[in-house]
# Entry
Amino acid sequence: MEYRIQNGICYVSLGGAVLAGAKAASGPSEPLVITVRRDPVRSRGFWAISDLSQLEEPEGPAALLPRSGTGGHRELAEFVRNHGASVLNTAFPGGFDFAAHWFRSRPERKTLTLVGLGDVGGTVLTALKLLGREIGEIRIFDFNEAQCRRYAMELNQVLPMGEPRPVVTVCREEQLFDCDLFLFTASRGVPPVGDQVTDVRMAQYEANRTMIAAYARLARAAHFQGLFCQISDPVDLLARAVYLESNRGEAGHFDWQGLLPEQVQGFGLGVMAARARYYAPELGLDPDAIRVYGPHGQGLVAANCPGEGYDPAVSERLTCLTREANLRVRELGFKPYIAPGISSAALSILQLLRGEYHCGAVPLGAAYFGCRSRFAKNGLETFREPICPELFQRLEQAYGDLTAE
# Structure
């Protein structure tokens, strides 16, 4: 097995391309990047592993299960078990550049761009201003220029309360992707309160997909190396649309020179976790044992617990209550945007910036799937724990439904 080093990064190939010009090394060292080559339509791009056998697991919910083994390469397996590693899919032409960017030193406080200052966007922005000690600047963009100036003026008049808080500035269109995180909250086609719509999120899909495609192409043109945070609904399908659209060339064909799958994440599952916890006392459940997975809307899976003690009937009731919680707010005559803006977006993004596990839709092969994950030192890392077979079957069904969209 041949190890090579360039720019302080150690590379080894398990089917992927070899980095030209890299110097030979006697063995593995940190940071270690394992290169593979897989179909970009149905595989991940750059992610973290803690055991070499995780390379052998099928794409999909299997990434949520514990796994261990040597994978046939004892020296490499032992190193990965002790230190972890990154996996790079070299089917992406810009993969090596992304890996080099990932391991560079980064500013302690991040720069965010937020697009869309409607109900959700204003809520997200206010929460990030109040809580975002990890953020140096939030640049805001909306076609309503007065709205931008109003938010910048008012939020910069908020008292700091002892800790540094982000400054809010108005962003020009050409600066949109000059940031670490790009937050997209703009939305079209939200059904008015009173409309009889069973899945409000899916009602927005077509209008939002058309709008989001333009921003995906802008991210591609800017060679964006940060994270595209998709917040408007339906986050799972739109996150996938951002990824795919950014990888289309001018003629409309896929050339995979846009965003890597892990550069896009959907933020909708956080409020589902919060809603499930809200209903836990009503069902006599332990809120800390509850898990939520899958799509933000129809197809959501809520469970009373992931392993032993999983109760299908109780979990189905919990799923129904959680999935329809937004309709209960609409029945009162209001659009439900406060809890989603804070739980799904602001708080989950802050957890992400802190390296903590959080709820979000991340690429698991051919779909963006809601689960707990974090950005660790080697890349995107899913939370792994034992899941009982009956619950795991529900996750596979939800994943299959997403890939069929």
